[in-house]
Design goal:
478 residues; two-stranded antiparallel sheet
Amino acid sequence: MNFVRSDEVEAIRKQLDHPVIDGDGHLIEYNPLVRDFLVEIAGEDAAAGFDQMLGGSALARQVPEEMKRGLGMTRFAWWGVPTRNTLDRATAMMPKLMYERMDELGLDYALLFPTYGLTVTATPDDTLRPALARAYNRYYAECYGEYRDRMEPVAAIPCFTPDEAIAELDYAVGELGLKAAMFSGVISRPVPGAEDVRGARWMDTLAHDSDYDYDPLWKRCEELGVAITFHASGMGWGSRMSRSNYVYNHIGNFASAGEAACRAMFFGGVAQRFPNLRFGFLEGGVGWAANLFSDILGHYEKRNQDAIAHYDPTELDRNLIEQLLKEHAPAPVKGALDRLDDALLMLSDPGEDRSLANEFAEAGIESADDVKSVFEQKYFFGCEADDPMNALAFDKEKIPMGARLNAIFASDIGHWDVPDFREVLPEAWELVDDGHLDRDDFRAFTCDNAIQLLGGARPDFFEGTVVESYAKERLAAD
């Protein structure tokens, strides 16, 4: 077949003097081959568990609606990949076809994240999960190996324990030679004492207040030069627990999961303790990031280690408040002033542990500038091409402290929200046509920010790729 750019894509590319890097496309795995690898790695018993996963929709339909709540079952993705557009379905499945169509799509280089391999980071079966990770990562390395000058398959790293994650990271990056890795920043764990109740879960965000010490994992990522890209679902927890409506559960779910991971990395101090790490929060856009940045600044202003003294119960002038109440309180309150201490206790308990008063200590934050530095230099946010909120990342007048957030162009090709792969670049360009982004903004969005995320963690990331020379210049300039 002859894959020719549309006039629209051709017109956009003629106006660009930089490559276009897709920071979050998706491949679709050929699961029969993955199953063969799984049998080699862990045997037929593991493959039988994999078969159950593949048929999960049919099994879920057999569960009566009234039983799903107690089982913690919610409506997950269905009809999630291209069908009518058969060419696009085959493109996502076959690396050679994707490679041949890259120019047609207007893309120079793409990170290709898993589709079915997304299950690796959420499968609760401690026996199946590590074997499945190994099978999928082998698939990515073997099937995409000869095309990596333009497409980089992303390893799936399960994070139920730090040791598990390190072991798979060493295999995928150290042995197979993959350069990019996908993590889940939220792990659903059973509530202690209710392990047999499937719906009783809490979300571990791997940094602040985790039951595990994940620092060895972050250290290993830093040693290997691996950018930490979080790609997790927020469906099935919080308010996204509909038993019947996937769209209800899907809206905002990636933003919710990304915000949880981002907040945990910040308050857990990971970004400060590991200065060479870069963090990507994918598929949720950047609107939530602007809100989180603003919220953290607002809380820091009012509740940093100095400002919190404004609310210290010992600072209350007991005599003055009693006198004011005697003069101004309604009669029923005046009649109960002998119980004033009881009235003053709630939310103002002087017995609080003062060693925990500085809630920004673990984060390593000592100023608002420190907050800004983390968001501008360490954090990157995957934004789908058709999201109009992408422009917010570049609008310094609307973001506190004139900050500029690192939005990354993410096509999401391979999934249901991209009916036609050829439209992703034109959809991104609409923000330029509409006057929301200038050419420098578009360069950062579709190229430079991705280079900083990946090359900032590993300067040689783009060696041997079609964007090597441009990436080298940008990294040297920054």
